[in-house]
Amino acid sequence: MPARRTHRTRRLGAAVILLAVTAGCAQGQAAESTPTPAPSGTPTASGPLPVVAVPKMLDVSSLVLPVEPYLFTDRQVGRLFRAKAVLTESCMRRFGHSWPAPTGPIPETGTLNPANTAHRYGITDAAKAARYGYHPVPGSVPPQVKDKPTGPQPGREAMLVLRGLNQDGTPAGADSRGRRLPAGGCQGEATKALSGDPQKLGNRELVGAVNIGSYRDSQRDPRVVAVFRAWSRCMERHNNDYTYADPTRAPGKDPKFNGPTAGPAELTLASTDVACKRETNVIGVWSSVDAAYQRRAIAEKQRELTAVKKDMRTQLANADQALAGRR
Predict the structure, then answer these.
(1) How many Cβ atoms sit within 10 Å of the Cβ of residue 186?
(2) What's the pTM value of the predicted model, to 2 decimals?
(3) Coil, strand or helix: which one is 174?
(4) What tens digit of pLDDT does each residue of 65-81 get?
(5) Could you say which residues form the signal peptide (predicted)?
(6) Which pairs with CB-CB distance under 8 Å and at least 24 residues apart come from 178-182?
């Protein structure tokens, strides 16, 4: 593969895998403010490397990472945002505006567990790899349900009440009739009713830092670097046309593999990928080191994470109450 093509593939592949990791928590953070650099005190990979026991494994269906009890599940995130929509509708109606809350299925991201372990380490199922390559298995990712009203676009006044912002983006204290607006408008009021903070709903930033941080840190760990090299050598032995530094970069978004279905070259590469993961025990080593970094970060932030669990219970209880009031 030419150098330019190899570098492009590697960059895009890494982005795809990172997206898979964050999918389980990203929706829960959708109501939070724009992501900012990690705050002071965020867990890091400094100090002695954690000691881990490494099992021989490939199947990730029963894998549970230490951070998962601190992350909302897909369905819990759906309940939170549906409850927010219900509370927003009530607030808008109070100000004389129509903003109907959605009905039907609660939106899901398609992740099976909070840390999205089914996709966190790339493909691992030999049968699916041989049939679908790197393409999604049909039915594994449900269609997104848009959790917003349909119909005519809301007017300027309705948007003012909804968001609590003037057209220039500054906070609005009142509507055109002089009625005091809640901080963040009706959306802020609804969010605050669920979480106590008009700007935050769902997973907390600290938990995201632990989840994504361990994934990144694990890839720099010498044990994982070594097993990645072993995997790469295995790939080279079986596929002379492709060179991948590690499993996060195979195959990326190479134009050769972005068709509606997987072709013979992709199926062969995907099958080799899984076979080399089995041969070198990539999943056993990587997931063990990943979990070790999480355990250390959790131990360092135990007091804050205990508060996170309490906050999760509060948010879900408030959401259930809001949804029950609509029935």
Answers:
(1) 26
(2) 0.79
(3) strand
(4) 999 999 999 889 999 99
(5) 1-30
(6) 179/95, 182/91
